[in-house]
Design a protein that fits this description.
Strands 1, 2, 3, 4, 5, 6 and 7 form a 7-stranded mixed β-sheet that branches. This protein is an alpha/beta fold and 209 residues long.
Length: 209
């Protein structure tokens, strides 16, 4: 079964950011019915994220979120836009996420804001950050302004969500099953390969030649 983690960075309840995350997740499930979705609202982990930034240690609830993300096959990440960038909580969460957790993971990004003027936050903030984290960011990202929810832009928002979800599912399927990143695994594999070579008499004779 394909497991998709959903991270919503909204700070209020109800939240337009959570609403966009739910609509993206619903559209993805429509294209991939067997997918299992696990949703996390970062506002519930705000204190834990700050504690880890100050102490370097994750609380048990935050550690559980990290484990779920590490085991997931794909990620949907949505943040509110503040001052032309992502929210501080959203950035802080990915700052404390253990290195390599999202390596090679397909990611669909989204953002919400008061006006469409903030829409470039997807391209100048979110996409570079997730590229730095060695993820594979889906080609189409979705930005939703206030008017897109029930206003004049609702139809175009639905079209953008459907297009982004279809592309995201194609990316997930083409990537196949994801192997969880284990720190130091490459060094261990190299050591095991060398040890197998030393046990192989043919390998030794070849080196002697």
């Amino acid at each position: 079964m394909t497991t998709i983690a959903v991270v919503a960075g909204g700070l209020r309840e109800p939240s337009s950011t959570r609403l966009l995350a739910d609509r993206l997740a619903g559209a993805v499930r429509a294209n991939l019915p067997a997918a299992e979705l696990k949703v996390f609202e970062l506002r519930k982990y705000g204190r834990s994220v700050m504690d880890m930034m100050l102490t370097g240690f994750a609380t048990s609830d935050l550690e559980q979120v990290f484990e779920t993300l590490a085991d997931a096959d794909a990620l949907i990440a949505v943040t509110p836009a503040f001052n032309a960038s992502f929210s501080g909580l959203f950035k802080s969460f990915f700052d404390v996420l253990p290195e390599g957790t999202l390596k090679d993971m397909p990611v669909l990004i989204g953002a919400t804001g008061g006006t469409e003027r903030h829409s470039l936050v997807l391209e100048h903030a979110l996409r570079p950050m997730f590229s730095y984290l060695h993820t594979m960011v889906s080609p189409t990202a979705v930005y939703a302004a206030t008017d897109d929810f029930g206003g004049a832009g609702s139809l175009t928002l639905s079209g953008r969500i459907e297009k982004a979800a279809a592309e995201f599912v194609r990316l997930i399927v083409s990537c196949g099953a994801r192997q969880r990143f284990v720190e130091g695994a490459d060094d261990l594999n190299e050591m095991q390969r060398l040890l197998r070579g030393l046990d192989d008499p043919h390998a030794i004779s070849e080196r002697d030649l």
